[in-house]
Design brief:
The structure holds three protein chains of three kinds. Helices cover 77% and strands 2% of the residues of chain A. In chain A, 38% of the residues are buried. Chain A is mainly α. Chain B is of the alpha/beta class. An eight-stranded mixed beta sheet of chain B has the order 6-7-8-3-9-10-12-11, sandwiched between helices. In chain B, strands 2-1-4-5 form a four-stranded antiparallel beta sheet. Chain B is globular. Chain C is 72% helix and 1% strand. A two-stranded antiparallel sheet of chain C has the order 1-2. In chain C, helix 3 packs parallel to helix 6, helix 3 runs antiparallel to helix 8 and helix 4 packs across helix 6. The two termini of chain C are 23 Å apart. Classes of the chains: A mainly alpha, B alpha/beta, C mainly alpha. At the A-B interface, helix 9 and helix 10 of A face helix 2, helix 4 and helix 7 of B.
Chain lengths: 324, 323, 293
């Protein structure tokens, strides 16, 4: 088991090295950062001096190693636009994104699982069909479009909720949070709903498929034969059985929701990481792009690693099959 | 005249499918007295399991009880609203299924599942519930029941799992247990053990049983009376010993002949030719006619249910009683 | 398989049993026709800047503009007729979706089948990369690539293909390995058949049904992705106004109640994507009933 974990960890490190090289080459080698930093009319000697100061005259692999060395020490460079260390910038934006992501995934689970259980329990009812139609829409309709419609409906036409921003925040554990004030909560509601829709569709499908399968088993018939009420069967037997895949997906989805947050944050001007990366792409703020990409890659590689190791710990067959 | 514990009359459970109406149970009648064990025998697809489910009102759509009555101590169960039926299930009539692997929930502890079944009918404290479960498990012969209560089903052997299911069914000391092939999924050595124990448990408490099985050998060792089902209908009924000695219906005869004990060593086992007919396309007359060696023109009309003292059969050409 | 009728006829017979899917298919075909015929039926050429009048800008649905005809869905900020803009936008969106889907199918399926056929180190390397990429959200990958490669049709298609090929590779690999394990491939390998024959006669035909299912879903996804990227300003250049860009252009005006500039192109987009997905769902149910959800 330990051997497997170490092997997986080494693989993950190798993947991170490859990813960092790709990101470095991609962002730094395609296009010339000097075009942005140096005015075109600057004399040749000043140009050469700046190039030397940024180390751009050295071979590419030396530049990469220097970059790598800095990154390992937590130094991602300075943002061209905000003129502050990139890591501080990213860490400052992280809580807003985490808040939005958590609200979305939690909401999607808390609403989606009961709806899915209902749709799987009575698949022929009109209500179940409506739930399934909703989940098809949630899967197909692009997130940005739903965001627009939410703004148009609740902010522009009805005027109930604000169209963007984070609203009033309260400090807790050293960072600012929206969900603790009524105003902040009203700002959080629409973007969280927007971000949650896709996950909601997914949770509905997972819960429905699981429930349908379980309702046909003898476990349920045996519980019925013992005189258990249907709600008791759903709450205790079914919920417990579908919990395993749902918890797994919940964990995995936290990661991918961070990526979807890019779109939602842009539409609702939510000052999180997603908005930061879009801004840095449009402003060609390369250190921020590189840092964001490397951190996201790190996040995904870590999630994969943890999932792999957890699965191996739960199922000895995986361990033997994969290492062979 | 006393009211029987359970009286089933003209029970018809049909499944309305896209391909047509499947008459899984078509006019089944019988009575059950306290402490009696009734063996319900037939090949798979003969409607015996659906009969069992119908007794508890557990038939799921597209299936439905379309006619007949099930009376428990005179109280009609057919058409009863679900909450009233739920009060009967588990407390008056309990059920044990074929495969304990499939019936017990793999992600809940045994104690939790039994607790749910217990609290379905009684408000009991956590400690009292635990004590009751331990007592029930001990009764079915599970050693160290107190500790086993916190184990998950996969930590039990097949026989032990079935004992847990039986203990769950016995929690409320029901008047009737419907046992649907409770030993089929088990090893042969454990089959006999469970069979014996269930017989002893029910005899002590006066519990009646409907024992459903395709295996005549198993049933005949527990049942007082036998009901033989074919294609959704009863074809023969009588005291176990008599049916075994002198079967009247050719189908019962066929079932007996296909038992290993009936064959002379060295001979091939005799099989009933053909297979169970599709319930969607039953012949107009006797459904067994296509597989029967004793057919005549009369078999094109439905044979009547002939009652003869303690026994009954449904055949135009019943086998003669040997002198 | 029902005897007699060709598999395709049987497939069609089952397909028409689902009324929703038939309607969806009709919508998809109608949109395809509209997209192809856009230059013929659009009242206005939205690319022809000389034909636009700023006096007609941001007019609501039903406005009669300088062209003398009714703008049924209103006009955008440049005075462009939205009906025409949507028809041309559909044309671009459908084109991008089909091209991206097709290239992703070819590249992904080739990789998957090659990996399954050759096995060994190549197999584990390719599939490891594919699995890693599948765990990574496609939208983020497309976003970054679109940003790195710059604007343009070719660049955007490349970004979409890179984000989507892995789904095809996984599917083709799964189907091909399952097929390879079957005896007849081994029998075919024992007789002197060329590797090419095994791949094209045995592996590829058996991979096609699941690949078709993935392709329908991925074409819809490619259209949605393209629209998202264009909305974020990372997609097509301004000279290629896809639906996403139309929506993006209208977004600032939505706050002041001029909803039509964004909403109508959006409806066209949603109808297109949902219709393709519904058709895809039905095909999937028919090809593999076990996957039915």
């Amino acid at each position: 088991m330990t051997g497997f974990a170490i092997q997986r960890l080494l693989q993950a490190i190798a993947v991170m090295l490859v990813m960092s090289a790709i990101v470095f080459l991609g962002v730094y080698a395609i296009g010339d950062p000097m075009e942005l930093l140096i005015p075109p009319e600057a004399p040749q000697d000043i140009r050469r001096e700046i190039v030397a100061r940024f180390g751009l005259d050295r071979p590419l692999w030396v530049q990469y190693l220097t970059f790598l060395g800095n990154v390992v020490q937590g130094d991602f460079g300075r943002s061209f636009i905000y003129n502050m260390p990139v890591l501080d910038l990213i860490l400052g934006r992280l809580p807003a994104t985490l808040e939005l992501t958590l609200a979305a995934v939690l909401g999607a689970t808390l609403i989606g699982v009961p709806l899915g259980i209902y749709a799987g329990y009575r698949p022929d009812r009109a209500g179940a069909r409506i739930v399934m139609a909703l989940s098809i829409l949630g899967f197909s309709v692009p997130t940005f479009w739903v965001g627009l419609i939410l703004i148009l409906t609740f902010a522009v036409s009805l005027g109930w909720l604000p169209a963007g921003g984070r609203g009033a925040t309260v400090e807790l554990l050293g960072t600012q949070w929206s969900f603790l004030t009524a105003n902040g909560l009203s700002h959080l509601l629409l973007p969280a709903l927007n971000l949650a829709l896709f996950k909601l569709a997914m949770m509905i499908r997972l819960a429905r498929a699981g429930t349908r399968e379980i309702m046909l088993t003898d476990t349920v018939q045996f519980a019925r034969a013992a005189g258990l009420a249907e709600t008791t069967i759903l709450r205790h037997h079914v919920l417990k059985l579908i919990a395993i895949p749902i918890v797994t997906v919940f964990g995995l989805e936290l990661g991918s929701t961070l990526a979807f947050a890019v779109v939602t944050e842009t539409i609702f001007s939510w000052p999180g990481l997603g908005k930061l990366i879009i801004d840095s792409i449009t402003n060609l703020d390369r250190p921020v792009m590189v840092a964001y990409l490397i951190l996201v890659a790190l996040l995904f590689v870590t999630i994969n690693l943890v999932v792999d190791i957890l699965y191996a710990a739960l199922d000895p067959r995986v361990r033997r099959g994969r290492t062979a | 005249m006393t009211v029987p514990l359970l009286a089933v009359t003209g029970l018809c459970t049909h499944f309305h499918t896209r391909a047509g109406v499947v008459k899984a149970v078509d006019g089944v009648s019988f009575t059950l007295e306290p402490g009696q064990v009734l063996g319900l025998v037939g090949e798979s697809g003969s409607g015996k399991t659906v009969t069992g489910f119908s007794l508890l009102g557990l038939v799921e759509p597209p299936g439905r009880i379309v006619a007949g009555s099930v009376r428990l101590r005179g109280q009609e169960l057919v058409g009863l609203p679900t909450p009233a039926l739920r009060a009967v299930r588990g407390r008056q009539i309990a059920m044990v299924f074929q495969d304990p692997m499939m019936t017990l929930n793999p992600v809940l502890t045994v104690g939790r599942q039994m607790g749910l079944a217990l609290r379905a009918h009684e408000r009991v404290s956590r400690a009292a519930a635990r004590a009751r479960c331990v007592e029930a498990l001990t009764r079915v012969g599970i050693p160290d029941a107190g500790a086993r209560l916190d184990a998950y089903p996969h930590q039990f052997s097949g026989g032990m799992r079935q004992r847990v299911a039986i203990a769950t069914a016995l929690l409320h000391r029901p008047a009737i247990i419907v046992a649907d092939e409770p030993t089929t999924a088990l090893d042969v050595s454990i089959q006999a053990q469970i069979l014996h124990e269930m017989r002893a448990l029910t005899r002590d408490s006066g519990t009646a049983m409907v024992w459903i099985s395709h295996d005549l050998a198993t049933v005949s060792s527990v049942a007082d009376r036998l009901l033989v089902m074919y294609a959704g209908r009863l074809v023969e009924e009588g005291p176990t010993a008599q049916v075994l000695r002198t079967p009247r219906h050719p189908y019962s005869r066929g079932l007996l002949d296909s038992l290993p004990a009936a064959a002379t060593p060295g001979d091939d086992l005799r099989q009933i030719p053909g297979s169970t007919p599709s319930l969607l396309a039953l012949p107009p007359g006797c459904p067994f006619a296509p597989r029967c060696a004793r057919t005549s023109d009369r078999c094109a009309t439905p044979p009547p249910w002939v009652v003869d003292g303690d026994r009954a059969h449904r055949c135009h050409h019943p086998l003669e009683t040997p002198p | 398989m029902s005897g007699g009728a060709s598999p395709l006829a049987t497939f069609w017979g089952n397909f028409v049993e689902n009324r929703v899917a038939v309607v969806a298919l009709a919508v998809v075909v109608a949109i395809l026709v509209l997209a192809v015929a856009a230059p013929l039926i659009a009242p206005q050429d939205p690319y022809d800047l000389a034909g636009l009048s700023l006096l007609d800008a941001r007019r609501g649905p039903g406005h009669v503009g300088a062209g003398g005809y009714v703008h049924w869905l209103g006009t955008d900020a440049q005075g462009r007729d939205l009906v025409s803009a949507i028809l041309y936008g559909l044309r671009i969106s459908v084109q991008m979706g089909l091209l991206a889907g097709m290239f992703a199918l070819i590249i992904g399926a080739s990789l998957g089948i090659t990996a399954a056929y050759l096995g060994g180190r190549l197999e584990s390397l390719v599939m490891r990369v594919v699995d890693l990429q599948l765990s990574f959200p496609a939208i983020l990958l497309a976003l970054v690539l679109a940003a790195l490669l710059g604007q343009g049709k070719g660049q955007l298609i490349a970004a979409l293909v890179a984000a989507q090929y892995a789904y095809f590779a996984r599917t083709a690999y799964g189907a091909a390995t399952a097929e390879r394990r079957k005896d007849y491939i081994e029998a075919a390998a024992a007789t002197p058949l060329s590797g090419r024959r095994i791949v094209f006669r045995h592996l590829l035909p058996n991979c096609m049904p699941p690949l078709i299912v993935v392709a329908t879903v991925q074409i819809a996804n490619a259209i949605a992705l393209e629209a998202t990227l264009s909305f974020l300003g990372l997609g097509l250049p301004v000279t290629e106004p896809s639906l996403g860009m139309l929506i993006s252009n209208g977004f600032p005006y939505m706050m002041s109640g001029r909803y039509w500039i964004s909403v109508y192109p959006g409806i066209a987009l949603v109808v297109l994507i949902v219709a393709i997905n519904l058709v895809g769902d039905q095909i999937r149910d028919q090809i593999n009933p076990r996957l039915r959800r």
